[in-house]
Amino acid sequence: MSTPQVPKSLKTQNVETVVCLQCGVNMRFNPSPGTELEIGAYRYQISQHPASKMEAAYAQEAGKATVYQVRQLSESSPLFALKVFKKDFRGAYVIASAERIRRYQHLPGMFGCERIILTRELCSKLLRQYPELEYSVLMPWLGTESWFDVISKKESLTFWEGLRLATHLSKCLHKLEHEGVAHCDISGGNVLIDRYQLKIELIDLEDLFGPNIPSPTGYPMGTLGYQHRSSPKNIFGQWLLEGDRFSAAVLLAEMLTWHDEKSENQLTENIILTHVKCTRIVVVIKNCVVHSPQFLQNSQSF
Hints:
Layout: H1 9-12, E1 36-39, E2 42-46, E3 59-61, E4 65-72, E5 79-85, H2 92-101, E6 116-117, H3 124-129, E7 137-140, H4 147-152, H5 159-178, E8 191-194, E9 199-202, H6 245-257, H7 261-264, H8 271-290
Helix pairs in contact: 5-6, 5-8, 6-8
């Protein structure tokens, strides 16, 4: 998976963005493919949606925001994501959260923690034209295929691929919890996968639970299919250190079992070693559930 770096100049220079020549006129941000944004020393261009035959911006609608793909106009042309939050989810909390979670960008699966926030101090001209872009997030583009896509499209997955993805996800969540951090909404849609390197990246990182991370505007209750049934009854939902354990157990089980049965007949002499690895991951899954005090309150739900 390519991991384009956020330019250092974005962290140290004031950001001035020019989208329209009509300064001082409030406009709705509804970009077209090719719309250019000048940010710091770099220019970015809204991408064309690959699945559309008409001119349409590459945009992905989510519950809290719309994410646009933008390409940096430079020799390497790296891709970035511009996440524009809906009205109810904009505010100073986004800035405080970004400052706290940036320290976790070195952890596996957490490259999305590298981000800058569009504020009035950084891009006053842009925000005078498009007020809705205030508190938007510019971050690396991490890919487009999620685990949800694999399931919904019924894509084939070999035993080895599922094992590698599950291993990488378990390492990611283990290191997060070791740091006192939880994603709090682990689900198929929030786990991007790289089918070539067999790695994962977590997205929707604004509501992380962790040391000194401010409370979100709305506590995450989890996603249907991965949500423990006691979560909606808890005032904090899944926003707690053990908040990933049940949903992670479900998703890891999916990865370990979503494979092409034909590939099982082609396993080599490493099958014993593979079963040992699987056994260890299954133990991790059991520990995720058994050692989660929050979710053991309603033990009958298991």
